[in-house]
Specification:
This protein is α/β, with parallel strands linked by helices. It is built from 15 helices and 13 strands. The strands form four sheets. Strands 3-2-1-4-5-7-11 form a seven-stranded parallel β-sheet, sandwiched between helices. The radius of gyration is 21 Å and the shape is globular. Bound molecules: NADP nicotinamide-adenine-dinucleotide phosphate.
Length: 396
């Protein structure tokens, strides 16, 4: 399989590349970088959680992993006409994981998730038009379901146009799914919707700390303004990547949409705090769900504060403000389709929460990234030599 992947420098993108490579795919990754050296450094940072420098050097040297410098919001993804045609001609699978998750910026979400998403779909349409598309996986999110309470949501029930959205992220991701349906009606295209992705079931390390900060902040509170029985649909990143790799390989997937979620096995707030109390040796928090509404309002107000002495408070409040509905509303996403079709089941957050907590707290919410190893300094990383392509184009 020759896979074209967007979003490799993001949290899930590194996982998806790693699993696709493990399954034997050849991966071309769209990377926002000005040159090969910066792309090499970015790929190392994206993949050092998964691979040793020597393994990566081998993959680069064998042409199994390559970067193409571009940006999904630019025409033809920022590629020259010749390079774009080469990408169309040489790939039979696409995974689109690039996105803006900036819930507070409608502009960023619109630009990347819609305008950029449309540009990417044009590429997929071209590959499909030449009869070469084996599979397209569009990475969406369960946030497309918007404002619901107390529900187990199945794949075909998640999108309702008359339901309010959480935020610009959910809204633009919902519309991006609509574009996939409308523009690729007869293509082998799949939409996957991960729920909240936190940690890894195999080890405590993570390179993504936004949601981990929110989780640790909540875990430290003596009083929680949420219903203790509200379930939290959280999955580890390795499950999401394994499921996407399985769907890429599948001969004939039975569905066009899959929830990559914990579903009805999702633990409640109380179960999570009981486990943390046990594993971290702490007191259990007190639950005051009636305080939820006033706390939500206070958090929302603080998130909008502009004065600089409150910058840190504001950052924390903005994070909480974005995640509040997920915490309070007791909504989980049925995962029967992916479990039945792949046999994969996400590890429970109950088993991963304490190791993740310790890793984040002890490391000061930082992954100990290492400088680019010597083994990678000289290896070729670019999918195509832009200069050679330009010369070939000029001589036509
Ligand atoms: N993380 C979660 O809990 C979660 C849950 C459900 C669904 N998802 C979905 O999973 C996907 C990946 O999420 P993530 O957590 O990995 O996000 P992330 O860490 O924020 O990564 C986003 C990726 O998108 C790339 N990107 C952004 N704008 C781009 C542009 N204009 N051109 C090319 N690339 C661009 C980023 O590149 P740069 O590094 O250059 O910025 C980065 O590689 C998204 O579609 C998201 O909606 C995530």
């Amino acid at each position: 399989m020759k896979l074209f992947l967007t979003g490799i420098t993001g949290y899930l993108g590194g996982y998806i590349a790693d699993r696709a490579l493990a399954g034997g795919a050849q991966v071309t990754a769209l990377v926002r970088a000005p040159d090969a050296a910066r792309a090499r450094a970015r790929l190392w940072r994206a993949l050092e959680l998964h691979r040793s420098a020597e393994e990566l050097a081998e993959l680069f040297a064998a042409g199994r992993l390559r970067a193409v410098l571009g940006d999904i919001t630019r025409p033809r993804l920022g590629l020259s006409p010749a390079l774009y045609e080469r990408v169309v001609a040489e790939h039979d699978a696409v995974v689109h994981a690039a996105a803006s998750l900036n819930r507070r910026s409608p502009r960023a979400c619109f630009e990347v998730n819609l305008r950029g998403g449309l540009e990417l779909l044009q590429l997929v349409r071209r590959i499909h038009a030449r009869g070469g598309l084996r599979r397209f996986v569009h990475v969406s999110t369960t946030a497309v379901a918007g404002r619901l309470r107390g529900a187990v949501v199945r794949e075909d029930e998640a999108v309702a146009w008359d339901r309010s959205d959480f935020d610009p992220y959910g809204r633009t991701k919902k519309f991006a799914e609509h574009l996939v349906r409308e523009l690729l009606p007869d293509a082998p295209a799949i939409v996957v919707r991960p729920s909240t992705v936190l940690g890894d079931s195999r080890f405590p390390e993570t390179t993504q700390f936004d949601m981990v900060r929110a989780f640790v902040g909540l875990a430290r509170l003596p009083v929680l303004p949420f219903p203790p029985e509200a379930r939290q649909d959280i999955v580890p990143a390795d499950f999401v990547a394994d499921a996407i790799a399985a769907l890429l390989r599948a001969e004939a997937p039975a569905h066009r949409i899959y929830h990559l979620s914990a579903g009805t096995a999702s633990p409640s707030f109380r179960q999570i705090t009981d486990r943390l109390a046990r594993d971290l040796g702490r007191r259990r928090p007190l639950y005051l769900p009636r305080a939820g509404r006033s706390c939500a309002r206070a958090v929302s107000l603080l998130a909008g504060v502009r004065t600089s002495p409150l910058r840190r408070v504001r950052a924390g409040a903005a994070l909480m403000d974005a995640f509040w509905p997920y915490l309070e509303w007791d909504v989980v996403f049925d995962n029967a389709r992916i479990v039945a079709e792949t046999g994969l089941r996400p590890a429970s957050f109950l088993d991963t929460c304490a190791p993740l907590y310790w890793f984040a707290v002890e490391g000061g919410f930082r992954y100990p990234h290492r400088a680019l190893p010597a083994a990678l300094v000289q290896v070729p990383v670019l999918y195509a030599d832009e200069a050679a392509l330009a010369a070939a184009e000029a001589s036509r």
